[in-house]
Design brief:
The protein is of the alpha/beta class and 499 residues long.
């Protein structure tokens, strides 16, 4: 590859270089080492694109440049539009100092051109100023007088009722001063990046910058020397302390010096990893189980969220329950109930109506990580107040099955520091697994549900819906098996006084 091509930078490459010069060098020279974006990350990229297009309606009537037209063509077109008196240009394209910038919205204000950077975030973050700073550098360097710089982001306090109100959906923050304050640093930053690109792969070790402010897509390459269940997997240990161990040539837990301070729960994890010892606190597990009463429900939700609300009484990025599974144990008999909404309809009313009926006889309802389910139920009560009383009665019966594992009352090495159900289940019930399911995690379930609305084949729709039901059903069956395992530690099932 001609080395001169390495010196060309886009806005995203500039911000990549701010995070790590090695990441930038690899992107320019060894791009095949990148981890391809998974479906979740790609969905976030797509959502960001959609939000950007929607924000253009804040300045209607603008001229839109298409990326497929080519960079050189769009640069020339932008110059022509500026000269011809255009008031608004979408994706206005500029190149200066061999840096490319594409401005989401360039609008002619009373004092000159205004630059608008659109983010699908619900707040203005400091890292976004790096984006506006390099854009200002390029646009102003191209001879355009930029009077103000703005960040456009979603307003997470907006609740949709009726037609979408774009003025309420979006918040526009003036970041002109913040952007200008970073201009003096840009030439030196660019020079440092280009110097690193002139040589061989930079000798930069892993560090906190691998995930700050974004997860780098070269982590699989740069972290390939890190073993499974290393010091980086110690739960709740601060990142700077993990790297202090790493920079001290400590990777494995057995290498941690005795004077390195760890909490009691961290000590349990480390000792289990080093010795294989199982930690089972029978008194605490017995106390936990003593609060549980039959008929006993095992409940799990699946939710989706979207940046732009589709339904009334929905906020940006609000978690909307679209599915549940409920296993019920009563008189030694296990039954199962479930719900799965229609993707083109608001599922919340039908969801809560059926859940209240299905769970009405349960004296205890076990969930895994109750903060999530409780928050979703409280949001439904807020948005549909006619269900408030019944939801409060349901909330009073919820118990968190995660508690014994979060507190390390039951911990084995196979959990590798995690108390998620995906880690606890195979450790306690090895014969159960999500591996053979078409959908094996909540993120995939959410994306699959969103895809349902675009499927036209009824046969495929039926198959996808069945996959969703099987996944959620396994979640609650897994809870049943985990609960049975805890019960078996105390005394035989028939001797437990769970009445």
């Amino acid at each position: 590859m001609p080395r001169s091509r390495s010196f060309f930078l886009s806005k995203s490459q500039f911000t990549r270089g701010l995070q790590c010069h090695k990441s930038l060098w690899l992107f320019k020279n060894r791009r095949e080492l990148r981890a391809e974006p998974d479906a979740s990350l790609q969905a976030r990229f797509d959502a960001g694109t959609d939000v950007g297009i929607l924000a253009q309606q804040l300045f209607p009537g603008g001229m839109a440049l298409e990326y497929n037209s080519g960079i050189s063509h769009n640069i020339k077109t932008t110059q022509k539009l500026v000269r011809s008196g255009a008031q608004t240009i979408y994706e206005a394209t500029f190149r200066h100092d061999n840096v490319l910038a594409m401005v989401d919205i360039l609008h002619k204000g009373p004092d000159g051109w205004e630059l608008y950077e659109v983010k699908s975030s619900s707040e203005t973050k400091d890292i976004f100023i790096n984006d506006t700073a390099i854009q200002y550098y390029v646009v102003a360097g191209s001879g355009i007088r930029v009077s103000r710089v703005f960040l456009v982001h979603l307003n997470n306090q907006y609740t949709r009722v009726g037609e979408l109100d774009l003025q309420e959906l979006f918040t526009i923050d003036d970041v002109t001063d913040l952007t200008l304050n970073r201009q003096t640093d840009i030439p030196q930053l660019l020079a440092a990046m280009r110097q690193s690109l002139e040589g061989d792969e930079p000798d930069i070790d892993i560090g906190p910058y691998c995930t700050e402010p974004y997860d780098c897509d070269f982590i699989p390459y740069c972290w390939k020397h890190i073993p499974e269940c290393s010091i980086f997997d110690i739960a709740n240990l601060r990142k700077n302390r993990k790297f202090a161990l790493y920079y001290g040539n400590i990777l494995h837990m057995e290498e941690i010096p005795p004077d390195f301070s760890l909490s009691d729960t961290m000590q349990i994890q480390v000792e289990a990893e080093v010795t294989g010892k199982e930690f089972i606190n029978i008194p605490n597990i017995r106390e936990f189980l003593s609060t549980i009463r039959e008929p006993l429900g095992f409940l799990d939700f699946e939710t989706f969220m979207e940046p732009v609300p589709s339904f009334d009484y929905q906020k940006p990025y609000q978690q909307i329950p679209f599915q549940y599974s409920l296993h019920i144990l009563a008189d030694d008999k296990l039954s199962q109930h479930e719900f799965l909404g229609q993707p083109d309809e608001d599922p919340r009313r039908a969801f809560i109506e059926k859940l209240l009926v299905d769970s009405r006889h349960c004296r205890t309802i076990l969930v895994y990580n109750q903060a999530f389910e409780i928050a979703r139920l409280q949001e439904i009560a807020r948005d549909f107040p006619e269900f408030t009383t019944d939801i409060e009665l349901l909330l009073a019966r919820i118990t968190d099955l995660m508690v014994p594992f979060r507190n390390r009352d039951y911990y084995v090495r196979a959990m590798c520091g995690s108390h998620s159900i995906k880690s606890v289940l195979p450790a306690l019930v090895p014969y159960m697994s999500y591996n053979n399911l078409a959908i094996a995690d909540g993120e995939t379930a959410m994306l699959t549900y969103a895809r349902l609305a675009k499927i036209r084949s009824q046969e495929e729709i039926d198959k996808v819906r069945q996959d969703l039901l099987e996944y959620c059903r396994l979640d609650t069956l897994a809870m049943v098996k985990i609960w049975e395992k805890l019960v078996s530690l105390i005394k035989p099932r028939e001797q437990l006084l769970l009445f």
